[in-house]
Every structure is written in structure tokens, then in C-alpha cells.
Amino acid sequence: MKTIKEVEEKGLVAYKYIRGSALYGTMVEGSDVDTSGVYIAPIEVVLGFDDGYQAQVSDEKHDNTYYEIKRWLELLCQSNPNALESLFVPKDK
To answer: Residue 48 class from Cβ within 10 Å (0-12 exposed, 13-18 middle, 19+ buried)?
Structure first.
């Protein structure tokens, strides 16, 4: 199973953004910063030569989550609010 760290270290992240209270300016002192994003699985995984496909990777608390691009597109087509939100995040976040 891939981890957030592995996805980032392998350079698979295509899009990363801040979400939650830090995005909306409602963060209170001591809060952590939640992130989300989209990653692109290696071609051998996409083509089925490696059975390691993961639709998403998250940390233990699910404060930080990346969706594989295929899953992210599916969520967009389903009007998933988390996926839709990702389209309108300011560039500085």
C-alpha cells in the first residue's frame, strides 16, 4: 500500500492544495493544516501490469488525502463536494 510520503517522494503529485479551516480562514490556534490533491499512478499500474492501484492515499487521521486522477475524475462526475471544491481553491492555497 502506498503512503502519502511515497506518493510525494516519487513525484506522482499533480495537484496539491490546502483544505478545511486553513482554506476558509477559520483555523484556530493549534490546529493542523489539512491538505488534499491529485496524484497520477505510474503507467505500469494504470495498464494493469502491477496490481498496486490505489484510488486514494491518506494519512492515519485522513487529514491529508490524495486521489488518483481516475478516482478524482469519477468524483467530479458524481458532483462530489470535496472534488468540486478542489476546482476553486485560490492559487496561494
So the answer is: exposed
pLDDT digits (tens, 9 = 90+) for 3-27: 899 999 999 999 999 988 878 778 7
C-alpha dist (Å) from residue 24 to 43, 53, 69: 36, 32, 25
Spatial separation of the C-alpha atoms in residues 33 and 72, rounded to whole Å: 21
What's the pTM value of the predicted model, to 2 decimals?
0.84
Beta carbons within 8 Å of 40's beta carbon, 6+ residues apart: 12, 14, 68, 69
Let me know: does 53 contact 69? Beta carbons within 8 Å.
no
Gyration radius of the chain over CA positions = 14
Contact between 12 and 41 under an 8 Å Cβ cutoff? The reply is: yes
Residue type, 75: L
Angstrom distances, CA of residue 13 to CA of 21, 27, 30:
22, 25, 27
Beta bridge partners of 9: none
